[in-house]
Design a protein that fits this description.
CATH superfamily of the largest domain: Haem-degrading domain
Largest sheet: 4 strands, antiparallel
Shape: globular
Strand content: 5-15%
CATH topology of the largest domain: Beta-Lactamase
Order of helices and strands: HHHEEHHEEHH
Helix content: 25-40%
Structural class: alpha+beta
Number of helices: 7
Length: 268
């Protein structure tokens, strides 16, 4: 009886180990399942668009002229594309990959088909003493998406692809994405330079992708452009963001975005 029981137990243990082996082997494949990203560009389109805008340089984008990370998430906050503008990942700030993803997640999570909020628009409200203080700590990045084999970052096998990226960022560089009918379809995040330059590049990328039919927003142009009215710890609009120091000035570029790259159906 006991030898038979021992043998049976050994067989079940062996089968269990095999099953675990199958699960672990299938894990990466399951993690890389193609996400559902209707109406959103693929990584190749996002990267080529990003590169064309970054090449305009600091004179047209402000900031320091750095290379950038860009991430697109769908309406559920699942990463659809993760790209970088340089020739390899050593040219961008390493930390900007997760920051870009968190910006995309934030803009998508806090916007809807009636009203758009860029990550720049929530800077003022998230400061100490304001109505959304502590927002930045409310939803940390998903560690299963943030970490992995660095050689896969920015490729179709990036650990973020197909996973909710999480994270909340409360400074410029994240924009919600809207279809030609004004329906929100996801979010775009840019990171790698000053937050003002990230916002400018994101704005131009979104415009080139044709995903900027913004229904309404807090800016004077009734969209989600950055509002540069944060001074002495206060924002008269309630949606303000400070001007950025470092590199080429960006204030005039930001203020002219709504005219040069207008949002809304009038241009579709």
């Amino acid at each position: 009886m006991y030898p038979a029981t021992t043998t049976l137990r050994s067989k079940y243990q062996s089968l269990g180990l095999i099953a675990l082996g199958v699960i672990f082997a299938a894990g990466p494949a399951l993690a890389q399942a193609k996400p559902d990203c209707p109406g959103l560009p693929d990584a190749a389109k996002l990267r080529s668009t990003l590169q064309s805008v970054v090449r305009e340089g600091p004179s047209k984008n402000g900031g320091m002229g750095n290379q950038e990370w860009a991430v697109i998430v769908n309406r559920n906050g699942i990463a659809c594309a993760v790209v970088y503008s340089g020739t390899d990942t050593n040219q961008e700030w390493p930390g900007s990959r997760v920051i870009a993803a968190s910006k995309a997640n934030t803009a998508n999570a806090l916007s809807n088909s009636d009203y758009a909020l860029s990550t720049a628009n929530i800077y003022a409200a998230s400061q100490p003493g304001q109505s959304l203080y502590s927002l930045a700590t409310s939803a940390p990045p998903n560690p299963q998406a943030a970490f992995g084999d660095p050689s896969s970052f920015g490729t179709p096998t990036d650990p973020m692809i197909g996973k909710p990226v999480g994270g909340v960022i409360v400074f410029g560089g994240g924009l919600p994405l809207y279809s030609g009918k004004g329906k929100i379809v996801g979010g775009l995040g840019l990171s790698g330079d000053t937050s003002c330059t990230d916002h400018i590049i994101a704005w131009k990328v979104r415009h080139q992708l044709g995903l900027d039919v913004v229904p309404m927003g807090p800016s004077p142009a009734h969209n989600d452009n950055m509002i540069l009215d944060w001074k002495n710890g206060d924002s008269p609009s309630g949606f303000g963001h400070p001007a950025c120091k470092g590199g080429q000035p960006s204030e005039f570029i930001i203020e002219s975005l709504s005219q040069k790259y207008p949002t809304g159906p009038k241009n579709k």
